[in-house]
Design brief:
The complex is a heterodimer of chains A (269) and B (377). Chain A has a domain at 60-233: MetI-like fold. Chain A is 79% helix and 0% strand. Chain A is mostly helical and 269 residues long. Chain B has 377 residues and is α+β, with helices and mostly antiparallel strands. Chain B folds into two domains: 4-230, Rossmann fold (3-Layer(aba) Sandwich), CATH 3.40.50; 238-366, Nucleic acid-binding proteins (OB fold (Dihydrolipoamide Acetyltransferase, E2P)), CATH 2.40.50.140. In chain B, helix 2 crosses helix 3 and helix 2 runs parallel beside helix 4 (138-150). The chains are: A mainly alpha (269), B alpha+beta (377). The A-B interface holds A 162, 164-165, 167-175, 178, 183, 186-187, 262, 265-269 and B 52, 54, 73-75, 79-81, 83-85, 87-91, 100-101, 104-105, 132-135, 148-149, 152.
Chain lengths: 269, 377
């Protein structure tokens, strides 16, 4: 009897604990979604349901413009970083060369270095070589901090990669380019996709580095919100945030399904 | 020997300072099943990879069908490889895996599907075309790897320990299948293995390598019965080895030798008085007697008998501590453990191995040899 009760307590504690963790993670998001439908402008009490804020947001060109910039920067920088990062990861996996461990270490530095340092560093480089600040400089800056993340995820995928698969393809008549495009890249594709998704999300919500490397006319969404916070956030920002949350959810879902399918195909028994 | 299809001439391979293949000379005949046998790290896989083109020899010449191949990429050589890990493409199904080589050669689609079907039926995998490698058993993956290689009609098929990952029973079965396949196709097989039994059962000829050196190349019976070096005698099957000095020979070629423990007898067509040699005699040729045998001063004590089905293995410890292994055929009488016996053999069953380098054998280096040659043990 006693033991059964003990087990019941154990079971309930773990359930309560998990519930609390998820509450902690998702309650703030739920609040944002809830207040985007609130009739009151002050987000203290929920007074009634409305879609007015969504309409207002649709008319807020400055906000939408900043969001467009964010997508543009994230899209372009992710594409560039994915190509460079994937090639780097393959090269680091394939070749042994003098000083490889140092190059390895240098890849970690941008990840652990305080972002503010990287931001200042990039700003001073841009002004040193007279690069005008704007979307272009911001894209370059984002590529800089995205590359290591792509390299890490692709390399994790490569770590289980059997080199003799490439040998086999070459043995069967494929030249080096065909081996890369037809064999290596398709096999490591799940790693490339998850690296790209990670890099994309990092770019979307980056504030510090963007703050240092942006121009006057090229505000991104997070920077815009920072600016608005000073005068109090109005619920139309909640409305846009809700849309972003939904979009993120859909993207994550799609990428997870893609990776799952790719894995299922090659690992299913 | 038939025409040589692969020739390896004075090939050396270094990895940095590491000399992994040393002055290798080998001719592989058209249509033969040649095994390269040796312990891990002996250079056998490196040799195979140099023929395939994955490694470049540091010195020397390799020719395939009379053409030098050092400037040819793996995809330009008319040889195909079956890898130890199978190396199937995990993102392609069986059909696409097998068809890959033909697609690269831009063979027409209808011909590809016909040849894929043929290749799959040759390895008994009809109906498996739509499966992915992860959905196959180890033996099935092995068959796909073989089908993927032979579909290209290579002149030479290189196999790198292809059965290493399979369990014993499947291994035996695949050995027979591979051998039959090779006979049917008439393709030259170069088969790398560390399993001497596998090499003996499957090969037309065996090349034994050790430490980068080709120790001996020959038909399986010669490798087993007439080992050319101490390493070969020791590596292929079990054997009892004695270090000894040749003392005298009679007209029939029977040679009296002095070993550390005393007089032993063998046969040697290249007798040279005072030369230090190895004498190797297989456990199944080693005999035991209750009474001393003339020409053999090998008294020992039976330590144990181990019954292993077809034979009973008896271990005898000689007076100098050397272990002698004797195999008694099933049904024959087995000596009691602890009994004192004399070890001997038929002189013609012993193989005398001349030290290749002519170097004094290590064990004798610090010993005053005259004591053994002149005195009696």
């Amino acid at each position: 009897m006693r033991r059964r009760r003990k087990n019941a307590i154990k079971k309930h504690t773990s359930r309560v604990f998990s519930a609390l963790v998820y509450l902690f993670l998702y309650a703030p998001i739920a609040v944002v979604i809830l207040f985007s439908f609130n009739t009151s402008k002050r987000n203290v009490l929920f007074e009634g349901f409305t879609l007015d804020w969504y309409a207002k947001m649709a008319g807020n060109t400055a906000l939408l413009e900043s969001f467009k910039n964010t997508l543009l920067v994230a899209g372009i920088s992710t594409a560039i970083a994915t190509v460079i990062g994937t090639i780097t990861a393959i090269a680091m996996f394939r070749y042994k060369f003098r000083g490889k461990s140092i190059i390895d270490l240098l890849l970690y530095i941008p990840v652990v270095i305080p972002e503010i340092v990287l931001g200042i560093a990039l700003l001073s480089v841009f002004s040193l070589v007279n690069v005008p600040l704007g979307l272009g400089s911001m894209i370059v800056a984002h590529v800089t901090f995205q590359i290591p993340f792509i390299v890490f995820t692709v390399r994790a995928r490569l770590s289980g990669f059997d080199r003799s698969i490439e040998d086999a393809a070459m043995d069967l008549g494929a030249n080096r380019i065909k081996v890369l495009t037809g064999i290596t890249i398709p096999i490591i594709a799940p790693g490339i996709v998850s690296g790209a998704v990670l890099a994309f999300t990092l770019s979307i919500d980056d504030i510090i580095i963007s703050f240092f490397t942006t121009g006057a006319k090229s505000t991104t969404f997070p920077l815009k919100i920072m600016e608005l916070v000073r005068s109090g956030v109005s619920p139309d920002v909640y409305a846009l945030s809700t849309i972003i949350i939904l979009a993120t959810f859909v993207i994550v879902l799609i990428s997870q399904i893609t990776v799952y399918r790719a894995n299922k195909k090659s690992v299913k028994l | 020997m038939a025409k040589a299809i692969v020739e390896i001439k004075n090939v050396n391979k270094f990895y940095g300072d590491n000399h992994v293949v040393k002055d290798l000379n080998m001719e592989i005949a058209e249509g033969e099943f040649l095994s390269i046998l040796g312990p891990s790290g002996c250079g056998k896989t490196t040799t195979l990879r140099m023929i395939a083109g994955f490694e470049q020899q540091t010195q020397g010449v390799i020719t395939v069908e009379g053409e030098r191949v050092e400037n040819k990429e793996p995809f330009e050589r008319n040889v195909n490889t079956v890898f130890q890990s199978y190396a199937l493409f995990p993102h392609m199904n069986v059909t696409d895996n097998v068809a890959y080589g033909l697609k690269m050669k831009k063979v027409k689609k209808p011909e590809i599907s016909e040849r894929v079907e043929n290749a799959l039926s040759m390895v008994q995998l009809e109906g498996f075309g739509k499966r992915f490698p992860a959905q196959l058993s180890g033996g099935q993956r092995q068959r796909v790897a073989i089908a993927r290689a032979i579909i290209n009609n290579p002149r030479v098929l290189l196999l790198d320990e292809p059965l290493g990952a399979l369990d014993m029973k499947l291994r035996k079965q695949m050995q027979i299948e591979l051998k039959n396949l090779q006979k049917r196709l008439g393709i030259t097989f170069v088969y790398v293995t560390h399993d001497q039994e596998e090499a003996l059962t499957m090969s037309d000829r065996i090349a034994v390598m050790n430490d980068g050196v080709l120790e001996q190349i020959g038909v399986p019976a010669d490798i087993y019965e007439k080992p050319a070096t101490k390493f070969v005698a020791d590596f292929i099957g079990e054997t009892n080895i004695f270090e000894a000095i040749e003392v005298s020979a009679d007209a029939a070629g029977q040679v009296a030798l002095k070993s550390e423990i005393g007089e032993i007898t063998g046969t040697d067509s290249e007798f040279s008085e005072g030369e230090i040699v190895y004498l190797s005699v297989r456990p199944e040729k080693t005999l035991l007697s209750a009474a001393p045998v003339s020409g053999y001063a090998l008294r020992g004590t039976v330590r144990e008998n181990i019954y292993i089905g077809t034979v009973t293995k008896t271990t005898v410890i000689l007076q100098n501590g050397q272990e002698i292994r004797v195999a008694n055929a099933a049904g024959s009488s087995v000596p009691e453990a602890g009994s004192a016996l004399y070890v001997y053999w038929n002189p013609s069953d012993a193989v005398i191995i001349h030290s290749k380098s002519g170097k004094i054998i290590d064990a004798f280096e610090n010993v005053d040899l005259s004591e053994y040659v002149e005195g009696s043990a």
